Amino acid sequence: MKMKFLEFLPEPILYLPKLLKRTWLQLVYFGYDFGRYFRFSSSVFRGDSEEKLRAMITLHYHSIEKGLSLHNPRPGFGSDAVKELTGYVALYLKRYGPAEHLSVPLNVLRCYIDYNRTHGIENPELEKHLAGFMQVYQGTLGSLPRGGGVRKLTRKEVMDAIRGVDADFFMKRYSIRQFSDEDVPMELIEEAVRRAQKAPAVCNRQSGRVWVVSGRNNVKRILDIQKGARGFSQSTKKVLVITSDLCNFHATERYQSWIDGGVFAMSLIYALHSLGLGTCCLNWSVQPARDIELKRFLKMSQSETVIMLAAVGMLPQELMVAESCRKPLTEVLIKYNSTETTS
Which residue, 191, 228, 248, is CA-closest to 309? Predict the structure, then answer.
């Protein structure tokens, strides 16, 4: 009798309970993401943690680097960024003391002073700040290593570096679900991460991190939480958990964690491919409970956004891969060439 009654109800009403449930779940999931972003990003408190303070230092020193890398920088540019940078460096030294990564902003400030001096602009106040920072740094850590500012690059250097890299490098990258019995040397993982660190990042803040999970039981546990590696989890030697730390971003950058993390993740996949390792990207669009479960297992901070996981292994001599045909180029490449007209 109940079923006959339901048959007379309009179709939209029949789907209403499911719609309400899905809407509620979406609100819960977005609420989880919003709560994490509000708590850990630099939107409200820009200097309440070392990670946030370091991100603000990087943002401002890179702003100066970008100015110096222009074809013809305006002498005296970036005074606001310089003021902000010196303030954040002073605050960092006061709270946490000298650290090796401070050598970069100090070198940038020195390059900025030198550039302006060649154009007849002196900045005694900035020079005084820099001398004080240098004294504190060198008194604990010694002389500053090279790094930070600008360097000259030639077209020949770039062309020499890419010689031998052709379309085959990209076309022969597949998602690998068959691995050999060999273990993956940690040295190869380290080299791949080193290469991936050259991925573009907003204001050079480099929010990406890689958690390397090794050991049969640990790998199994991680893949059981992810639930997307059935059929090849037994042959997976290592799992990489690729994350992006929310502490590096502020209010207008609410999606930047996913963007920077995604760019970093793809660079890492290509870096592993360049070293002859097989990878299979594993999706991490999951409900909050599973996100929390993974982070508890790894003892990972809630400030880190999990971008994706990657199963990694050595390639066997022969294997089957999904062909994964791509869309026609005409569906992906949009050529816009409109002639502007004036009214």
Answer: 228
With a CB cutoff of 8 Å and minimum separation 6, the contacts of 324 are 174, 175
CB 180 within 8 A of CB 313: yes
C-alpha to C-alpha distance for 90 and 92, rounded to whole angstroms = 5
State pTM to two decimals: 0.88
CB within 8 A of 175, min separation 6: which ones?
Answer: 279, 280, 281, 321, 322, 324
Shortest CA distance to 194 belongs to which of 118, 133, 274?
Answer: 274
Report the alpha-carbon distance of residue 32 to residue 24 in Å, rounded.
12
CATH of the domain spanning 157-314, picked from 3.40.50.720, 3.40.109.10, 1.10.3210.10, 3.40.640.10: 3.40.109.10
| pLDDT tens string 133-181 | 999 999 999 999 999 999 999 999 999 999 999 999 999 999 999 999 9
10 Å Cβ neighbour count for 298? 18
pLDDT at 27 exceeding the cut of 90: no
Q: In this structure, are residues 109 and 126 in contact, taking their beta carbons and an 8 Å threshold?
A: yes
Residue spans per domain, the chain: 2-40, 50-141, 157-314
In angstroms, the CA 261 to CA 253 distance is 13
